């Protein structure tokens, strides 16, 4: 099986080296590093596109207006670029997602959460942490009563960032059943995907 190619761009050497070592070990991935936007652009021109890029929101070359994000997406052939930051304003995250970012991870999250987020994005989803409330997302229900007991269990797992395989193992059900529950949850909550369901669910469930 071919290793995933991951690039991490962060001007804090310790941060990017620790993340790179962790991802290389946990995901058996090939991880490359850059300390600035220019270094990342040079890396992309030399190595070609990456399966996913982790891009620090505040670093040398990251110009106001997120123009650098658009440039990196182009150089990475529109493959996923996920932002990482210590404390980003919700408005900036919304703009980044609008421009094509595949998600956002807070540096205060656990290392395991980062791996889950990366796998989530590699599966074609958009990832944002539970702590980020998207004002544009509104549930069609205001409590848990519209969901069955099993759907509530699945929703709790979603809010904890678990993937389908992990949910299946946790609840002792098949992945096919998990997918059916997720579709039902999204329909009942009137949301487009599991990410939105998890964000809404975190407002109503104690996890």
From TrEMBL:
Residues 5-122 form the Response regulatory domain. It comes from the Bacteria. One of its GO terms (biological process) is regulation of DNA-templated transcription. The modification 4-aspartylphosphate is found at residue 56. SUPFAM superfamilies: CheY-like (SSF52172). Keywords: Phosphoprotein, Plasmid. SMART domains: HTH_LUXR, REC. Residues 140-205 form the HTH luxR-type domain. This is DNA-binding response regulator. The lineage of its organism: Bacteria, Pseudomonadati, Pseudomonadota, Alphaproteobacteria, Rhodobacterales.
